[in-house]
Amino acid sequence: MKGTDWKDKEFTMKELCAEMPEIAAYETQENAKEGYQDIQKIFAQAYEKLCAPHSGISQEELSFYLLALARTAAEIDEEVFDHKMNLVMQYRKVLKKNLSVFESWDPDSVKRVKESIRIACENRMLLREKYEDYIGEM
Fold this sequence. Notes:
Elements: H1 13-29, H2 36-51, H3 59-75, H4 81-98, H5 107-122, H6 128-135
Helix pairs in contact: 1-3, 2-4, 3-4, 3-5, 5-6
């Protein structure tokens, strides 16, 4: 999804996971990081939806959101520190809130959360030593 057609789209959590890492990679490599602000806006909206009282967000949606954040943050250039750290901080907050319960979720959701943790550790968003029990050997 290149160009600007994605900027006003209302993403489901699954679409966010599938499309946003590719968009971030394009913005980093081909578009001089012009869309980073819009990526921030979309994730901020998703975060607000997630944190709204009685949001009704399912475990599946939450797992897609965490995986989307990990994959997308990995594509954001570290030179644009604020944009990357905003995503990293969202990821850490939501993971911390759900870390003690996610392993009781459905198997596919557990797999997505563990994959997000693996990606986050590989990209130094989380300390590997602290999360090895959740992901096993990398």
